């Protein structure tokens, strides 16, 4: 009876006071690069690390917390996300340089970090210019591009545990592997220290420009997409590549509803303008089915899929909370 009573109460009334901002039924479709998905029951933008830690300590134990970055490698299902969605900006989007090290908040865009490093004459971080997303996401999935990965440059990372305790983690504790880290999924990264080497700003900026030009030439960067859809079965440098398997299975240009497998790079799914999240996910699953049938290999999703199907998430509560 008590659980049913709590479930019927407005979530916002059960949350602790914060210095940041809460917003009910926040539109996440305008946040994600796919431009699809249902709302967040409550969106929380913490003022700083202390504010986020206090929220974690005081929140009701039954309230689910989901962290999102800029939504570049994210598919939010059409029913939206129950509980509280945390999005880091403001104080978490600051970056500073000292010597050959960069300190960046988890909300810093990867491309912004690359350019900040160039301005400080720090080489070795140019690859971040080819990764859509934030430093928090890069830490979570050991993001990489153009022959380097986050694990190659991390000195330390700071994260909050579910009880609000702050932890500083070294490379061994981060436990990086291909597109993954060993840090528990319910910990929230807040900051990272990354190291490069001294270099010429002009040379670094030229390298960044080349990476961005190459990416524009080979990937559908101007489309509503979510980045690489599936992990490469052979790892970052191994064979085969996911796109090769998708090509072999005849999936280039395949469509489902308003979703399409990119003709430019077939490891990218695209919202052609009318897709639902269900369309995109169903197309991805059909690609996986065809690749398995054709090649015997199983593709694993790289895109993070969160939330509930239409009719079972917070979107169905819209009338009750407004």
How many individual helices? 9
Helix content: 25-40%
Helices and strands: which structural class?
A: alpha+beta
Strand order, main sheet: write it out: 6-7-13-11-12
Q: Say how many strands there are.
A: 19
Q: Terminal Cα separation, in Å?
A: 25 Å
Q: Average the pLDDT over all residues and give the rounded result.
A: 93
| CATH architecture classification name of the largest domain | 2-Layer Sandwich
Shape: globular
At the third CATH level, what is the topology name of the largest domain?
Uridine Diphospho-n-acetylenolpyruvylglucosamine Reductase, domain 3
The number of distinct structural domains comes to: 3
| Rg computed from alpha carbons, rounded to a whole number of angstroms | 20 Å
Reading the helices and strands in chain order gives: HEEHEEEEEHEHEEEEHEEHEHEEEHEH
- What does the main sheet amount to? 5 strands, antiparallel
Percent range for β-strand residues: 15-25%
Which CATH C-level class of the largest domain is it?
A: Alpha Beta
If you had to describe this structure to a student in words, what would you say it looks like?
By secondary structure, the chain is α+β, with helices and mostly antiparallel strands. It has three domains: 2-90, Uridine Diphospho-n-acetylenolpyruvylglucosamine Reductase, domain 2; 93-216, Uridine Diphospho-n-acetylenolpyruvylglucosamine Reductase, domain 3, CATH 3.30.465.10; 228-302, UDP-N-acetylenolpyruvoylglucosamine reductase, C-terminal domain (Uridine Diphospho-n-acetylenolpyruvylglucosamine Reductase, domain 1, Alpha-Beta Complex). It contains nine helices and 19 strands. The protein has helices spanning 2-8, 49-58, 110-119, 135-141, 171-174, 201-218, 242-248, 277-295, 318-321, and strands spanning 21-26, 40-45, 65-68, 74-76, 81-87, 95-98, 101-105, 122-123, 144-145, 148-149, 154-160, 166-169, 188-195, 197-198, 224-225, 255-256, 259-261, 269-271, 304-306. It has a five-stranded antiparallel β-sheet. α3 (110-119) runs antiparallel to α6. It is globular. It starts with a helix and ends with a helix. Residues 1-8 have low confidence and may be disordered.
